[in-house]
């Protein structure tokens, strides 16, 4: 079990704890989106049901980003073990504790919410796997396709409005809607890539900083 209060390694900006904190934030964001998604799904005929397709896509993207943070968390342990002289201030007990935490995150479970009891974090990867599995079931896919068809029918219902437009105006209207849709998709992709780039940059920066501190202490 992880201790509620991290060791001196955490206070020094240890990359493990940097990514652990980041992971908590990302899993929390996934859970918030998932809670909204679940509420809409259970509401059946709610007007908000039209949000399901886009919200499902957002959750998939958020889960993917969070899972990358889990991998970075594992990389910090590998980095410490491969450079024991540089990270000698991180003792064997601390490394064992970190390994236990990561090993726990790999277990398959049905946890859907972040839980803290005496400083023990419930497995993040369990949460991500459970959310990902739930939004990928055949029943959910069928529901999403149903909502997408409704959106298409809604778009067709505006035909009477468009029929009064000239050919050029209809084309401009279509291009405007398509441009907005593509911009939204690109924005979501950019946010995901920006988060990944930020993680990589942070890992490199913190590692360099710790390495410099260790060299300074060994002089």
From TrEMBL:
Annotated segments matching region Disordered: 151-191
Entry keyword set: Golgi apparatus, Membrane, Protein transport, Transmembrane, Transmembrane helix, Transport
Record field: compositional bias (Low complexity): 181-191
GO biological process, one term: protein transport
Coiled coil (residue ranges): none
Basic and acidic residues composition-biased segments: 169-180
One cellular component (GO) term of this entry: Golgi apparatus
Compositionally biased residues, Polar residues: 154-168
Pfam family, one: STX6_10_61_N
Keyword Protein transport among UniProt keywords: yes
Primary location: Golgi
Membrane disposition: Single-pass type IV membrane protein
SUPFAM superfamilies to which the protein is assigned, alphabetical: SNARE fusion complex, t-snare proteins
Residue ranges of domain T-SNARE coiled-coil homology in the record: 183-219
Annotated compartments: Golgi apparatus, trans-Golgi network membrane
Family, per entry: Belongs to the syntaxin family.
Protein name: t-SNARE coiled-coil homology domain-containing protein
Organism: Phytophthora nicotianae CJ01A1
């Amino acid at each position: 079990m992880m201790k509620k209060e991290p060791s001196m390694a955490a206070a020094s900006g240890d990359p493990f704890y940097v990514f652990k904190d980041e992971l908590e934030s990302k899993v929390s964001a996934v859970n918030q989106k998932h809670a909204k998604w679940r509420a809409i799904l259970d509401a059946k005929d709610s007007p908000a049901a039209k949000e399901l397709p886009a919200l499902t896509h957002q959750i998939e993207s958020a889960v993917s980003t969070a899972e990358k943070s889990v991998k970075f968390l594992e990389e910090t342990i590998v980095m410490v073990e491969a450079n024991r002289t540089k990270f000698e201030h991180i003792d064997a007990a601390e490394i064992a504790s970190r390994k236990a935490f990561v090993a726990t995150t790999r277990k398959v479970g049905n946890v859907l919410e972040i839980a803290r009891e005496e400083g023990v974090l419930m497995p993040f990867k369990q949460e991500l796997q459970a959310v990902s599995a739930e939004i990928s079931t055949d029943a959910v896919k069928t529901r999403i396709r149903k909502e997408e068809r409704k959106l298409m029918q809604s778009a067709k219902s505006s035909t009477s409005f468009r029929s009064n437009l000239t050919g050029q105006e209809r084309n401009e209207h279509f291009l405007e809607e398509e441009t907005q849709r593509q911009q939204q998709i690109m924005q979501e992709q950019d946010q995901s890539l920006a988060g990944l780039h930020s993680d990589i940059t942070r890992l490199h920066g913190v590692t360099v900083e710790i390495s410099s501190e260790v060299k300074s202490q060994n002089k």
